[in-house]
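Re: your question from the hallway

Yes, I did run it. Sequences:
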Amino acid sequence: MVKSDIRTDCCQRKQKNRNQFLRYLQRDWQLYVLMVLPMLFILVFKFLPYQGLTIAFKDYKVAKGYAGSSWAGLSIFRKVFGKRDFGQAFSNTLLLNILDLVFGFPMPVILALILNEIKNRYFKSIMQTLLYLPHFLSWVIVGGIGYSLFSVSSGVVNVLIRNAGHSPVPFLQENTWWLISYVLIGVWQSMGWGTIIYLAAITGVNSELYEAARVDGAGRLKQCIHVTLPCIRSTIVTLLIMNLGKLMGGSFERIYALANAKATEYTTTIPVLVYRWGIESGKFSEATALGLFQSVIGLALVVAADLIAKRLGEDGLI
Amino acid sequence: MSRNQYKKPWSWSRTRKKDFVVDVFFHILIFVISMTCLLPFIHIFAKSISREAYVIANKVFLVPIDINFNAYRKVLQDSSIVRSLYVSIIVTVSFTAIGTFLTISAAYALSRVQLRGRKIMTFLIMFTMYFTAGTIPDYLLMNNLHMLDTWWCMILPLSFAAYNFLIMKNNFKASIPDSLIESALIDGASHFKILSYIVVPLSKPIIATISLFYAVGRWNAYSDALFYIKQRADLRPLQLKLYYLVVAASESFKAEGGIAAGQITNPEVLKASCIIFATLPIICVYPFIQRYFVQGTMIGAVKG
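Structure:
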């Protein structure tokens, strides 16, 4: 008796749930129709590739397909970690990203603070327009400009250096100089655009704070250090942590547009190696394993960065 | 009063002088830094329209010498460059149209609170922002779908971006009052009608921003074309063509239709004209689109 009661109750609830679901479907079917195409795109172009990740654990042969290739356990990873290229790519990726962080991160803050001191609106907006420009150029164009300006024989910078009586500098043709040029070009490309968020944060600073500081006799430098900087501190910290999360990332396009045969020591990074192994030489399993290694570390760093940000009382990223 | 008059001129003039010096210094500093963003273009432009001999002699700096447009004539005569411009335009326009359409529909549907399964769908979309399968699985997918060396591999895979979706959704939530949509629903309007007659007209700025994000991103990217377009040279977008011409220098200019346009052979001049040729579309629209980009970036920074 009791048993059947429970059963009918259960059935009724199921029935009710189904009815409810049908009701939602009936009420919101238009919204679901709107979602069909976007979800289809996400499933096909973002989630189907996850299936391809399995070949990092398989001895993948194109002819056999995903399912037909035999499992290889972790042997692919062991093979990847054993390669000399891997160690080089790993340390290069870290090195380039750390240099970017050290030199590229403070620049927008400094630039935003200086821009904030400029009161002439027209001058300021013209300068901002110019500073934002490199952000809109593709890395191919930036690379082309770089080669055009810095080449040893005909680059304008070296022409000027030679005219001044010094010997030309191989900006993009020698390993150490290449590294310096790479970082500087990156800083140049992103510094202007990076100011936007800081300028927005500075606009939000309460102007009474400046007045109070002025009454207390603070000059412009002191106002900057004791009012502006503390007020945009949370923005700076959030962006810093966000950038820490990108330490294992790295733009393929940027490196590839600046790499050349003469300076190769620092140009082998993980994305470049993935391209070379996978698409150029068809070693798909190794390349996928390498890519997976990078994205797992990247994800872990982002999650850690988010936790740290939240622990510090800043807004999280996720 | 008298004390004020006695004290003010002295202290004012001193701070004023200091202020003035600091101001001048900052203006010059910003001016110099901004010029590093402008002068390279002026230099390359000057190179591209100067007589070849002066460029070879390294005499051209910021002012062109003996102006002529032979290099551009040669660039335009190379049918593969013109073709790549055509490919870029077609790809960018269709990519932007598809991407904007998908983003608007998803953002509207998922900004409706009553929609069941809203959370799980949002999560699925946002998850792709933090963990992507990577280059090779994407490449193999394109291979399995037989999309390598087709137009579709440049148009479809990236056309729905989680980040743009997030910006659009937050903007819909913040700028369109729920009561407006609810009253339209009560009046019997369908969601399609609400979307096309209320939401879209009210959200023109954010739609412009998002479509520009898509368009500029698509126009500038070259890595996916580098990965996916191998055999069919006629499907190379402009940036990839430029990569082969200028950066890798693995291809040379084809002189087609006779060599009547002056015998320009110096690669420096040709590269310079190519760079300007490829930058011109961006520079032309840049002053108008900059504002939308700044707004979009600030909305994105607020995040959700």
